[in-house]
């Protein structure tokens, strides 16, 4: 009898637990699963089939992946994306860290400056891209013709190499303000007595920066590098608004490339395998970056 | 302060000021040219306007259907962000307070999912959800935003909730409050700072998002970034109007930022460090 009672008690508790789970976690978990998990699993499965956007008739093994790697345009995109990620990662973080140093100095105008640096971040990549399209295609070209600047007479966006730098300029301008905030948080978290001690010991500002500040705020670098790495791989808006992949699909970052493959050319199978490749590359790069950066973090 | 330090300060100020000018210059260019005549823009895009015209704004306002786009952006952002706050705060509370294995795994899956780029599931996503999208595309978009935003928002709330002592929950339940009442009346108000962070981060993302609306929304439901992009594509040779359109797209968020500046900066820094 006692045993029975206990069992009943357990049942009541587990029923109450299930009810609580459904009340608090039910809706968001269902939506999360429908929107994210199902299409993701589906997408991976489709890459091994002859899916045409509507139905699957047979499994094809690694054919879609083989097709992706045979596509010369995909290699152009991969090279372009890798270069873009590396260069933008370095420049965004160098500039952002510099900005953070400026606005955490003893300047009276620092809050004012911070406001300005952050503004490009508020506005979406498409609108920013279009603004810069006007600058590169019209403003600069018209000035170049007026004052005879040979280097700027032809729009930068019509030349693959110069368009690359145009993309970099806009990306650095857009995201450095955001990363600046991350670095500011890191810089202000350093205890004042550590800095005072180094000053008393006669360390120069440069030595203090490299030997004390940077090691003590390594966590901010881990975060900022991770965020820029991710956004570099996923960049789409600025790419569309600035060059839309032109001239002749030579400035397509991977996002835009997948979009064009699937929605303009109707290559769903290869488009999706390229998307899965992109996921693997992003996940691997992020994992490597975080593991390496973590090693430099000082335990406090 | 010695002379060297004073010169250092001056140099920092000069570098900072030059950079600040560079950072806002593109916006200045847009505003200046938006009130110029087409001829003056072509003659010199950098010059100040010789004669001011507001006609560009009038044209852009009607041609890009500004009011409709602004309303769409507002409706989609407000609904998505509010629902995200409600759902993810409850989910985070549940996951953080029940110390069971399933809770731990669910949380791990949520965190891991943040690395998946949208592009990796965009194609099957569109194939699968086409019927839902054609049924009600603004509603569908809000639904998608909840799905994609849940992980980060829950993660942010989760970190904050673990700093609230469980004694508070226990006291509430001894006083006879049901768990929902205890959450909404006692716990949720305590999470104001992190709610502000979640709201700002999601609002900036959803307000400015382009790829997903481009795939999902039909003409009548276009948001501001989408209608700006399409308007610019059509009228880019009408420089003045194109610039007025861009200015109209930029103005609402900049005003919002100037009012809530402190919250923006602290919200972003809290969100990034977690």
Word description of this protein:
The complex is a heterodimer of chains A (300) and B (274). Chain A has 300 residues and is mainly α. Chain A has helices at 2-46, 63-70, 72-103, 110-122, 125-147, 160-188, 192-200, 205-216, 218-234, 237-242, 254-264, 268-295. Chain A has a single domain, classed as Orthogonal Bundle (MetI-like fold). Chain A has twelve helices and no strands. The N and C termini of chain A lie far apart (57 Å). Chain B has 274 residues and is mostly helical. Chain B folds into two domains: 3-53, no CATH class; 65-273, MetI-like fold. Chain B contains 14 helices and no strands. The mean pLDDT of chain B is 84. Chains A and B meet through helix 1, helix 3, helix 4, helix 5 and helix 6 of A and helix 1, helix 4, helix 5, helix 6 and helix 7 of B.
What would the keywords be for this entry?
heterodimer; A: 300 residues; mainly alpha; MetI-like fold; 12 helices; B: 274 residues; 2 domains; 80% helix
What's the short version?
The complex is a heterodimer of chains A (about 300) and B (about 270). By secondary structure, chain A is an all-alpha fold. Chain A contains twelve helices and no strands.
Q: How do the helices and strands line up, and which of them pair or pack?
A:
The complex is a heterodimer of chains A (300) and B (274).
Chain A: H1 2-46, H2 63-70, H3 72-103, H4 110-122, H5 125-147, H6 160-188, H7 192-200, H8 205-216, H9 218-234, H10 237-242, H11 254-264, H12 268-295
Chain B: H1 3-34, H2 38-43, H3 55-63, H4 66-97, H5 101-113, H6 122-135, H7 137-161, H8 167-174, H9 179-190, H10 192-208, H11 211-216, H12 224-235, H13 239-259, H14 261-273
Helix pairs in contact in B: 1-13, 3-13, 4-7, 4-10, 5-7, 6-7, 7-10, 8-9, 10-14, 12-13
Radius of gyration of chain B: 24 Å
Shape of chain A: flat
CATH architecture of chain A: Orthogonal Bundle
Number of helices of chain A: 12
Structural class per helix/strand content of chain B? mainly alpha
Low-confidence stretches of chain A: none
Encode the helix/strand succession of chain A as letters.
HHHHHHHHHHHH
Strand content of chain B: under 5%
Distance separating the two termini of chain B: 38 Å
Overall shape of chain B: globular
Q: How many strand segments of chain B? A: 0
The CATH homologous superfamily of chain A corresponds to MetI-like
């Amino acid at each position: 009898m006692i045993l029975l009672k206990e069992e009943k008690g357990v049942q009541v508790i587990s029923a109450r637990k299930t009810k609580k789970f459904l009340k608090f976690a039910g809706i968001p978990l269902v939506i999360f699963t429908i929107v994210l998990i199902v299409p993701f699993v589906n997408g991976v499965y489709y890459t091994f089939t002859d899916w045409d956007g509507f139905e699957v008739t047979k499994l094809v093994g690694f054919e879609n992946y083989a097709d992706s790697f045979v596509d010369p345009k995909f290699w152009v995109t991969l090279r372009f994306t890798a270069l873009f990620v590396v260069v933008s990662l370095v420049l965004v973080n160098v500039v952002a860290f510099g900005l953070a140093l400026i606005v955490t100095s003893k300047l009276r105008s620092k809050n004012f400056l911070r406001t300005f640096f952050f503004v490009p971040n508020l506005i979406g990549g498409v609108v920013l891209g279009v603004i810069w399209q006007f600058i590169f295609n019209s403003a600069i070209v018209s000035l170049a013709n007026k004052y005879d600047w040979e280097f700027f007479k032809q729009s930068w966006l019509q030349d693959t190499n110069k368009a690359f730098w145009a993309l970099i300029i806009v990306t650095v301008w857009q995201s450095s303000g955001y990363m600046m905030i991350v670095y500011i948080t890191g810089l202000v978290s350093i205890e004042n007595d550590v800095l005072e001690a180094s000053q008393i010991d006669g360390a120069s500002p440069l030595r203090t920066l490299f030997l004390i500040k940077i090691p003590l705020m390594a966590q901010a670098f881990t975060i900022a590098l991770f965020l820029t790495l991710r956004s570099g791989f996923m960049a789409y808006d600025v790419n569309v608004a600035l060059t839309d992949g032109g001239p002749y699909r030579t400035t397509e970052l991977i996002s835009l490339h997948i979009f064009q493959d699937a929605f303009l050319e109707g290559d769903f199978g290869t488009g999706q395998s390229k998307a899965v490749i992109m996921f693997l590359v992003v996940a691997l790069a992020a994992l490597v970056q975080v593991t390496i950066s973590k090693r430099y973090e000082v335990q406090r | 302060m010695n002379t060297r330090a004073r010169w250092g300060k001056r140099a920092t100020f000069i570098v900072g000021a030059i950079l600040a000018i560079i950072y806002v210059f593109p916006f200045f260019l847009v505003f200046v040219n938006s009130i110029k005549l087409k001829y003056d823009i072509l003659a010199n895009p950098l010059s100040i306007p010789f004669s001011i015209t507001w006609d560009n704004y009038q044209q852009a306002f009607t041609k890009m259907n500004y009011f409709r786009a602004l309303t769409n952006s507002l409706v989609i952002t407000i609904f998505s962000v509010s629902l995200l706050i409600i759902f993810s705060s409850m989910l985070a509370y549940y996951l953080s307070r029940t110390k069971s294995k399933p809770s731990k795994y669910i949380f791990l899956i949520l965190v891991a999912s943040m690395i998946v780029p949208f592009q990796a599931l965009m194609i099957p996503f569109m194939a699968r959800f086409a019927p839902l999208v054609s049924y009600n595309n603004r509603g569908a978009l809000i639904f998608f935003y909840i799905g994609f935003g849940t992980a980060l928002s829950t993660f942010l709330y989760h970190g904050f909730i673990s700093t609230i002592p469980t004694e508070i929950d226990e006291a509430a339940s001894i006083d006879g409050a049901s768990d929902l009442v205890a959450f909404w009346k006692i716990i949720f108000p305590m999470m104001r700072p992190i709610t502000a962070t979640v709201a700002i981060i999601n609002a900036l993302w959803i307000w400015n998002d382009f790829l997903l609306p481009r795939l999902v929304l039909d003409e009548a439901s276009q948001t501001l970034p989408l209608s700006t992009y399409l308007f610019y594509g059509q009228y880019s040779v009408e420089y003045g109007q194109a610039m007025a359109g861009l200015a109209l797209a930029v103005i609402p968020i900049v005003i919002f930022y100037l009012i809530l500046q402190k919250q923006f900066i602290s919200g972003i820094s809290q969100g990034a460090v977690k």
